[in-house]
Amino acid sequence: MPVRRSAVSRLMLAAALLADPAAFHAAVRDARGSVRGRLHRLSRPVDLNGVLNGPDQATLAAATTSRGRATWWLRPAGAALAYAASWSGAPTPVTGGLVAREGVTRPASVSLFAGALPRNVTGVSGVTPVPPEVLRRIAAAPNRWDAVLRTPGPPVRARLGGGPVTHPRALTAPVLRGEQIYTCARQPPGAYAFAQLGVAATLRRGIEHTYVTPGSGPPQWVAPDGSAVRGSVVTRTPNGDGVIPELVLDAAQAGAADGLLARVAQILRVNTTGGTAPAGPCEPGTEARAPYGADYVFLS
Question: Are 118 and 93 in contact (CB under 8 A)?
Fold first, then answer.
């Protein structure tokens, strides 16, 4: 059977992507330009729905397998409701999402999003303003409320439930202040040059990034809530002259069982700037600090 040229091109692209993902960038374009990011191969399974859920822990959840599978995570806070929804097998296009009193669809108690989504979209997240009194009623009796997906046919409904909620999360934390630390040490074949001693960085959300032991590591990240992870480098990807490489690291838990960094499995250091060691010979025992920037992505 003849194979269309476009299909062959897609197969060749997929093979090249699998062979060397770091040679490719993903881009999101709009009227103002594009945002690009280099692709990296992960070494551990992660749940990418964590990217939808974001870094904060939800307090309400809903799930159904009726007319497809739909899962909701909700977090009331102040005068707003943060939400994440993902689905598969539901009639498409999905045209809206809401939280409604049991048995009620119109008028919506709380409209989360509206408008037909592309048929290949299978998840959405956001924050919507909600009167505090409505949020209090939802939090006080979640089993009297449904999370609803609007579809071309009957809506897909899932009853809310409270209690302990666990879900995949993802956190991106840029460096607010950071230095790569180097010390002058003897290097093969006997000359002195700067070698990595550690790092001192403060990330968004108050995460502190250091080495457990100067000179030997491993790198660690500690959140204000006591959760912490240590990393071991899996891959290094060059990011230009005078710039430290991008990294993929496996994560090991080293702190509290619950919190911002709990259950992190993989860490990415991306969008790096600066941070390289001074070039040339140096005086034994001297130390150098090189300011750097990066975004750290923590995936569970």
Answer: yes
Q: What's 132's DSSP letter?
A: H
For residues 208 and 235, the answer to whether their CB atoms sit within 8 Å is no
Residue 7's φ and ψ, nearest 5 degrees, are: -65, -40
Alpha carbons 199 and 187: distance in angstroms, whole number: 20
Q: Which CATH topology does 59-159 take?
A: Immunoglobulin-like (2.60.40)
Query: Tokens standing for 288?
Result: 């150098």
**φ and ψ at residue 57, rounded to 5 degrees:** -80, 125
**Exposed (0-12), middle (13-18) or buried (19+): which is 34, by Cβ within 10 Å?**
exposed
DSSP tag of 259:
S
pLDDT the model gives residue 135 = 93
Q: How confident is the model at residue 4 (pLDDT cuts 50, 70, 90)?
A: low
Using alpha carbons, list the distances in angstroms from residue 26 to 29, 35, 184, 243: 10, 8, 39, 21
The residue with greater pLDDT, 187 or 249, is 249
Count how many Cα atoms sit within 13 Å of the Cα of residue 6 in the half-sphere of its side chain. Answer: 0
Q: How far is CA 82 from CA 9, 168, 217, 300, in A?
A: 41, 15, 38, 19
Q: Give helix then strand counts, H and E, for the chain.
A: 3, 18
Beta carbons of 143 and 159 less than 8 angstroms apart: yes
Q: How many CB atoms lie within 10 A of CB 16?
A: 12
